[in-house]
Target: Thiol oxidoreductase
Amino acid sequence: MRPLFLCAGAAFVWASVAGGQIGPLDPHLNWQAWDQGQAERAENALVPPEAFDLPQPFEGLSGGAGSIRADESRDVFSEPSANMGFDRLMDFQLGNALFRKLWVASPASTKASDGLGPLYNSRSCQDCHIRDGRGMMPEAGQVPMALLVRLGMVGDGVLPGAPVPPHPVLGYQVQTFAAPGLQAEAVVGLEWAEESVRLGDGTTVSLRRPLVSVTGAEGAALSARLAPQMIGLGLLEAIPMLVLAERVDPDDADGNGISGRLNMVWSAAHQQMLPGRFGWKAGRATLADQTASALFGDMGLSNPLVPLPQGDCTAAQKDCLALPNGQEAGVRDGLEVDQTSFDLINFYSRNLAVPRRRGEGDAQVLQGKALFNAIGCVDCHRPAYVTHALPDQPEQSFQLIWPYSDLLLHDMGPGLADDLPEGLAMGSEWRTAPLWGLGLTAQVSGQFTLLHDGRARSILEAVLWHGGEAQGPRDAVVSMPAEDRAALLKFLESL
Ligand code: HEC
Ligand code: HEC
Model:
């Protein structure tokens, strides 16, 4: 792929994807305002210089002025941005109620809450994003809920950027539940293969690799994805596109072994190709696109961007297509999730606050931060950005934030690879996971379920799974003295 060509100062951004041209972008999308290209660069020049052995100004405020104090509560990921005006809190609460709402299958007496399915993975957003944190791994014998299985027919290969054909019967995703009168479309099996890694100091760490199977999905490539945490997403959406593009280095021109790429994906919200930011392979460009696909694919609910009431029922699933839905002619826009509710869910998703850091001035944390830099973790887990000035989104506007991600795709090697491309992301490519909130994961979720399929049960396990472009930094963690590793982990826990 040719590198993204960005013309700062002109009102066009042209990107070359799979040989075709896309653009120009709509100048009213202020968070991408390319004609402010110079301003964006200037904003990001305000990021304090990387000083890895010292506390940096404002680095404790991971989510900028919207950061909240991290208390010991399990609900620490469920707070609104601290800089939210009182007049907007009501919308946050309404969005929260919709995020928690339990949908029911049609027909039902509760008209405002029906339309679930007919095939679905869960009845509410919250059941997967538990306390706005990660999903729970299914116990042995349990029907998976927060661990989704996507599928596609890869056959002899799919051209980069070309859509992967869905499975002819199961569609794009395996729904593990069904409305009354219908059987769930497939059974997902999950087993674990254990392996172990010996560290330089002689200790061994055991790793588990998921072995996922789906009945009736012969010939399809499978990708298991666990629901991620929900904090700071509006801030990630507000990072200037040009600033993300600055790190794109598909041919590793700077020779550091790291060749990040932007995923380019179709945005139904903006009717154009845009850089992907959300999902484990950066398959969605905006929170609205992500919400729409969750409503459609995970819960079978029609919404302003995907107005299809039968969810992921395929033409082969006639009994599924024949079941009633929750569309109501003449009632507002008739959709199962109308525009007002849709906007409130997005407002909520945009405003879940990032907790501030703990102990960022501690000597061991600083030692760990210096190591994080020295061994090259920082080449993908980029620390800081300044977000766009956004007059209509004061909470996200012009904030210095510390997500520790470049939001780019990286080849993470065969150990983490699935076989399912998504947009430009190939089977072994994943979006650098933001690391803010990492140290609070177990407090919120009761356990660690890190990486895209939740296989890692600790921060160290997550690091040991790194391969491909991250092989060097991972090997450095294996061979470093135990004391250094403890410092690195202490730093990661402070995020
Ligand atoms: C069945 C479980 C499930 C349900 C229900 C669900 N999600 Fe998700 N969510 C996921 C998974 C899995 C991912 C990762 C998807 C991917 O990698 O493409 C995700 C990703 C996301 C992301 C992107 C986060 C990031 O860091 O990139 C957002 C935002 C989100 N979901 C919001 C919602 C909203 C809003 C709802 C309700 C309308 C919802 N989800 C319902 C499982 C679920
Ligand atoms: C080549 C880019 C790259 C480098 C270098 C890199 N990472 Fe990552 N990191 C990623 C990607 C991509 C993921 C998500 C992988 C997945 O989910 O399969 C990730 C995930 C993680 C996670 C799990 C986060 C979560 O939410 O589940 C941790 C912890 C982490 N990295 C720490 C580190 C540390 C520590 C280093 C240095 C030793 C490092 N990474 C180096 C790209 C990188």
About this structure: The pocket of heme C (ligand 1) is lined by residues 121-122, 125, 128-129, 145-146, 148, 225-228, 233, 278-280, 283, 287, 290-291, 294-295, 298-299, 345, 349 (CB under 6 Å). The radius of gyration is 22 Å.
